[in-house]
Design brief:
The chain contains 18 helices and 24 strands. The chain has about 550 residues and is α+β, with helices and mostly antiparallel strands. Among the domains are: about 25 residues; about 110 residues, no CATH class; about 110 residues, PDZ domain (Pdz3 Domain), CATH 2.30.42. A hairpin with a 6-residue loop joins strand 1 and strand 2. Helix 2 crosses helix 8.
């Protein structure tokens, strides 16, 4: 009897343990305790799926931001599997509940089924919720969506109906998460290069949930969002706000910089903005910005700088080296082996860029170099100049088109002179708003003569100069001009960010940009992150800058002559 009593007690203990454990793990062995970050990340994904796929949410008649704001505290409090799924089910009900019985597992797959892999996770969602999420996706009927539209004739996305929430600059925790969830889902569904991001986008969401929750003040919040936007590895992913702008400074030092051979070197000085023209000279190497070692400064700001590749990252860091919060900006320079401390005037951006434009406009738009070689500065050449430029350069043995700048829409007009026939040069991918997360590929676009053929096309050699300053429309221009029969590209890696730009407001008066359409060669070769690949790689050197040489142009001339 005693053994029988002990056996019953043991069974009772085991039964209690089973009940406790199944409350935590469930009969399928899955851990039923879900940590807060995982719950909030899952909320972000479900909220985004319903936003872009549920027909009632798409109408814009439900304040979907407000639904999220009210859901965040409940999801944070739902620490176990059952209560979490109840909150997710409540979210679906607010969108407009779906009937599980309508679910048909044989419905044709979405063009990008991998996009919804997260919705099948049985460690997060119970069977009913998983079926409902699948049903929302499968029953989606293509229709206009209040929250996203396509720019006419181009196809990049517009988010003009998103609430701006310009104030307060430091929104509460729920609105900070709204900023993250809004941006994350826009990249998830509409960024044409999501597969080229160097980070797992779902892991980025998990990383930034606690950062946005714990942001201590407006500066911390704004800088965290800026860091978030750099994670898409896109030179177009500019992000700013009044706080971000103030943090890096309103004032610009009156010179330009390049990052060459691991050195931050002065490449142009705007004497009209200097106290003394000789305070800073071309070829000076920056050692310190204020009292901070320049390498330390560059390393500290890297996480806030958008770029598709390393050369462009260093280019964009140079801009921050120039910026400060004072009208007097101190630098420590190295010149001819001598360390020099200087303080230069800080100028508002408008004054600084007026000086840049004035310096550019003082250059020749085109000229003939020795050896009967034409040279064209694409950054200042206007459409109205193209005919006269080609008349004067038509009998040269080569034309060098310098695209180490931002052109002014002249590519098609020049290409009409360079090609005997129309030729394919580019194709695009555009977000498919009928099925968010998928993209449509266009037929290749052509460049060359506007009508018919051109037997009198330019017969000389064509050389295109590029580097990290060649971005977006400059890369697009290069793709068009390189179709010339005898074209050669000389220089180094370009910015790797082509395609029209979209932007969205985030709470706290933050605005974030991103590339909106994908740009590819007709054979499908990509341009994002890779940029335009030069035929001949040549980079400037510190010694060359200090000697006043343009080594890339020199290489082009040498190539033509030899």
């Amino acid at each position: 009897m005693k053994h029988q009593k002990n056996f019953k007690q043991l069974c009772l203990v085991l039964l209690c343990m089973f009940l406790v454990l199944t409350g935590v793990y469930g009969e399928d062995g899955q851990n039923r305790n879900i940590d807060e970050v995982t719950r909030l990340s899952a909320l972000a994904k479900v909220w985004g799926l319903l936003k872009y796929y549920h027909p009632e949410v798409a109408k814009g008649q439900i304040d979907w931001d407000a639904v999220l704001i009210s859901a965040v505290p409940s999801v944070k409090a739902a620490e176990d599997f059952e209560s979490f799924n109840q909150e997710i089910d409540n979210l679906i009900v607010q969108a407009g509940d779906v009937t599980i019985e309508e679910y048909n597992p044989n419905t044709p797959a979405h063009p990008n089924e991998e996009l919804f892999k997260w919705a099948k996770d049985s460690s997060l969602f119970d069977n009913d919720v998983r079926k409902k999420l699948k049903l929302v996706q499968k029953k989606h009927v293509p229709a206009e969506n209040y929250y996203v539209q396509a720019y006419p004739y181009v196809g990049n996305t517009i988010y003009e109906n998103e609430k701006k929430y310009l104030t307060p600059y430091y929104p509460d925790e729920n609105y900070r998460l709204l900023a993250l969830f809004r941006y994350w889902n826009i990249i998830q569904y509409f960024f044409p290069y999501k597969e080229d991001i160097g980070n797992d986008w779902e892991e980025v969401l998990d990383e930034f949930v606690p950062q946005l929750i714990n942001a201590e003040d407006a500066f911390d919040y704004h800088l965290t969002i800026k860091e978030l936007t750099t994670r898409i590895d896109d030179s177009h992913s500019f992000c700013s706000s009044p706080y971000i702008y103030y943090y890096f400074g309103y004032y610009f030092a009156p010179f330009e910089l390049r990052y060459i051979e691991g050195k931050t070197i002065v490449t142009r000085v705007f004497a009209s903005l200097m106290n003394s023209p000789d305070d800073v000279q071309v070829g000076d190497i920056i050692l310190k910005r204020d009292s901070t070692d320049i390498d330390t400064f560059r390393n500290d700001v890297r996480k806030y700088v958008q770029a598709s590749n390393e050369p462009t990252l260093e280019r964009n860091i140079n801009t921050l080296v120039l910026r400060g919060r004072s009208t007097q900006l101190p630098f420590t320079l190295l010149r001819n082996g001598q360390v020099i401390n200087v303080t230069v005037p800080g100028n508002y951006a408008s004054i600084y860029y007026d000086a840049v434009d004035a310096a550019d406009n003082a250059l020749d738009k085109w000229k003939i170099l020795s050896g009967n070689i034409g040279y064209v500065h694409k950054g200042i050449l206007e459409i109205a100049d193209v005919d006269q430029m080609m008349v004067e350069l038509m009998n040269t043995k080569a034309i060098i088109f310098d695209i180490r700048n931002y052109p002014r829409g002249t590519m098609y007009y020049i290409s009409a002179y360079l090609n005997p026939e129309r030729v394919e040069f580019v194709k695009f991918t555009k977000p498919d708003l009928d099925y968010p997360g998928s993209f449509n590929t266009t037929e290749p676009y052509e460049t060359g003569p506007f009508t018919g053929s051109n037997p009198d096309y330019y017969k000389g050699r064509v050389v295109l100069l590029i580097d990290e300053r060649t971005q977006s429309h400059a890369e697009f221009s290069t793709m068009s001009l390189q179709t010339a029969p005898d074209a050669t590209i000389i220089g180094s890696q370009t910015a790797g960010a082509d395609g029209n730009v979209s932007f969205v407001y985030l709470p706290g008066y933050i605005y974030a940009y991103l590339t909106g359409i994908g740009v590819y060669y007709p054979d499908g070769f990509p341009t994002q992150r890779i940029g335009i690949v030069p035929d001949i790689v040549i980079r400037p050197t510190v010694a060359g800058i200090q000697q006043g040489r343009d080594e890339v142009l020199e290489k082009a001339i040498d190539f033509i002559e030899n």
